[in-house]
Amino acid sequence: MNTKSPVPSVPVPSASAFLPGDPSISKEGIPLLDIKDLKVSFPDENGTVKPIYRVDLTVKANETLGLIGESGSGKSILGLSILRLLPGDAEVGGKILFKGQDLLSMPSTELRKIRGREIGMVFQNPAASLDPIFTVGGQLSEATRVHFAFDKNAVKARVLGLLDRVSIKDPALRFGQYPHELSGGMKQRVMIATGIASEPSLIIADEPTRGLDVTVKRRIISLMQKISRDTAMLLVTHDLEVAEQLCDRVAVMYAGEIVEIAGCEEFFKAPLHPFSEGLLNSLPSRGMHAIPGTSPSLIDLPSGCRFYPRCRYSMDICRTRHPELVPVDNAVDGAVNGDMNAFFDAGRLVRCFLYA
User: Fold this and answer.
1) Which of 59, 105, 230, 325 ranks highest by number of CB atoms within 10 Å?
2) Which pTM does this prediction carry?
3) Among the listed ranges 95-99, 146-150, 181-185, 223-227, which one has the minimum average pLDDT value?
């Protein structure tokens, strides 16, 4: 469980002075990020692929929300959708509100002012994401110059400060090195430095510990804990250990939709959705019990509950009716009026007829 507390600032030129208002908070009463009825589809020779279906999700200021689930469940596509980084043939519907502004309908010129500046992205697979023909310093300098009017000396000072902040030893040496000269762990730290270069209000971290050995992974988790103390984060991961250590809340995805949202501590103590239960039971510490069957095709989805064929609690209704995401405790008056933000604030939500 992540505990928020102030973190000392790096003694280099700060980007915050160039941002409108306080970048760590959203407008009063408005979630920092508010995703409403998001749908994403892609054309395919065999039909239409639907990796995201009617997703509603919020991230509050200074909160770390974990988006967890099996590989192929749509987590990374959701993260890329926020900054409109999907392929050109993607069809996207719904709304993605950031500080009250819809990113999906925003002109590209305005969106470019937000990408990297107010919303930072830590891409998975740094070996592919870092440009092999530019030095580490060159790539981080570019990420700084794009948004802020620093002179050359100030840019370098800031980049050295960023490398120090992500715990890279001898920043001056690494500044002039190329990605192939760095270890896997250092490449991941450089990717994180790129994501926080402009002190964004929100960081989208896509599988930041994927492919790292246990020792390096623990160091990256520690680094992410420090960074998340003074910024909001959407953490996309299939690694439950990472989610448990970093997140305030978790949202579970299965076959393109959210099936459960809960506080991190209560989720790991008592998951409600059968898929969530299966995820946790697959952990070595809980007996390493595999979930039977496979995820459904995102081209040919079941008409009823998408987890029905694999669920040990399945009922007849699960085969024919699709369950809605509903609150299961701490109901509030706003829920009666269909206010989903009231649901998010009230407590847990689950998509299962066991709780209907």
Assistant:
1) 59
2) 0.85
3) 146-150
